[in-house]
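Ticket closed. Logging final result for Transmembrane protein.
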Amino acid sequence: MSSTAATSSTILCTIFIFLAIFSNSNDALTAYQVLEEYDLPVGLLPKGVTSYELDSSTGEFTVYLNETCTFTIEGYKLKYKTQITGVISKDALKDLSGVQVKILFFWLNLQEVTRDGDELIFSVGIASADFPLSNFAQSPQCGCGFDCAVNLIETVTSFNSFN
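Final structure:
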């Protein structure tokens, strides 16, 4: 084999190895994409997910956030811990741990989220509330939830009226 043929073979092998490694790294879905795979909206998780683990045979999952996250949605204050666990299946998150909702003066564990058509039903065991699916088309941001733009406008308006 000539040196030109050997060099060409080496280059081709290197390219194939690179493509194999690169294509495998792009196959991994984000936690938000996994929600969509199970017909759930991305807005069930706040921005800031750093990684996740999923056992696709059982649906057991763990999601990791970079920090504890609190915000208010539709008058309910929510708190996401840095580690959230549960079981995911089509249209449902069950056996949740790491997500709490404040009702009156008490923090209660959110146990389950179920999709029923165009509604999401959030359950804390003793009570539940349902919301339009469309409310969760985007991920909320820690601190301000879905109202970050409104909060920014109010801050700028307050600052301008102060001057």
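The chain has three helices and nine strands. No further action required.
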